[in-house]
Amino acid sequence: MKVAFQTLGCRVNVYDTEAMAEMFVQDGYTLTDFDSVADVYVINTCTVTHMGEKKSRQYIHRAKRQNPQAIVAVVGCLAQVSKDEVMAIEGVDVIVGSRDKRDVVFQVNRAMAEGKQIVAVSDSLLLNHKFEDLGVTGYEGKTRAFLKIQDGCNRFCSYCIIPYARGGISSKNPQVLLKEIEALAGNGYREVILSGIHIASYGQELAEKMDLLDLLEAVEQIPGIERIRIGSIEPMFFQGERLSRVLALTKLCPHFHLSLQSGCDATLKRMNRRYTAEEFAAVVKALREAIPEVSLTTDVIVGFPGESEGEFEETAAFLEKLQLTRIHTFKYSPRKGTPAFNFPNEVESAVKEDRSRRVMMISRRGEEKFLARHVGQVLPVLFEEGKNGVHLGYTPNYLQVRVPSAVNLQGKILPTKLTGLKGDVLQGEILVDLGFSQPS
Length: 440
Ligand code: SF4
Fold this sequence. Notes:
Layout: E1 2-7, H1 11-26, E2 30-32, E3 40-45, H2 50-66, E4 71-76, H3 77-81, H4 83-88, E5 94-96, H5 104-114, E6 118-120, E7 144-148, E8 150-151, H6 162-166, E9 170-171, H7 174-186, E10 191-195, H8 212-220, E11 227-230, H9 241-247, E12 255-257, H10 265-270, H11 277-290, E13 295-302, H12 309-322, E14 326-331, H13 349-372, E15 378-387, E16 390-394, E17 400-404, E18 413-422, E19 425-430
Parallel strand pairs: 1-2, 1-3, 3-4, 4-5, 5-6, 7-10, 10-11, 12-13, 13-14, 17-19
Antiparallel strand pairs: 8-9, 15-16, 15-18, 16-17, 18-19
Helix pairs in contact: 12-13
The protein binds iron/sulfur cluster.
């Protein structure tokens, strides 16, 4: 039997899909592309934006067109928040909620055997703090292991559906996690990426007294792990004495994705973000002073209800001043069930489009400057894939570097001179003798 997957949305969803794929393989299924004929199609959905939801629906229809006899399983955020609507979509055989993914194979097999629609969606997840450990075990062919350490969120930003779609904070058991990382190190992994929905909340609900900093300090002690990266993180995590503990971590990579969302205090307040633009700028300043090579990226939402031209100008000026490495821009999309859904003064699509374009231009300028200032530097690069004599790798601050090499560099961390820029990719030259001359 063949199973095909389609994943929408965030990196955490990608992780969940990998875990579900492993479960199907363990049950005897073989994996195939979503574009080919399969017996089972699993769509791991997203509902964070209107676009994520629209695409989720398109893939449901596409799966059924590809093989009308196939079992179509709709899993994750959309299934969780719009269960009844998903049940009503023609051709949907299995509906599995955000914290019920562990049972996906069982439910699919059940739908096949019983020939009826199966719905496995837990009721309101807001008070559900149980971490669903899907436990990906295979990371073949990769040099970096992505680990989901946390799920859910209880911050309730006014625009965000995530607390309803993914539930309350739940953290992976630290002992289990540390053992997994030790095993990964034993298998040659040099870098781990610790990610989740709101990782700054890691450990809050655990009986063990272990927060994110304690966890990072414990991972730092694991021999063989040379780099630790963290996913998107709450900017205020770096405030106060936590910053000095962060700076003492020698393996933590100097790339932080700090979600800003707006540079205007009035907009931030309506968004229920719990910081001011000034506080965010202070974190950026402190990180840059302490780690000159730090790369700081962010997310910004444009066209939030009531965002006047003046408010947007404040955000634009703030971003221009900060000169971050990259800004991911999102046009606000109302999510039913969130407070902002009912906020007045909607911003027109054309205005959102224009603001998004303006933020992207600011982002482009910041990125160009940041990349250009690295030309001529020598940095350790962890190489990943290689193809046709060209290898790609990443610096500690997450800049992509392309290097010509006749030998396989995958998994190696090598001192590399950054010689120039092609588009937005740095070109490099390895500074150790690899036993051959590098083509230029
Ligand atoms: S912090 Fe806010 S935006 Fe981020 S997941 Fe939680 S509620 Fe959503």
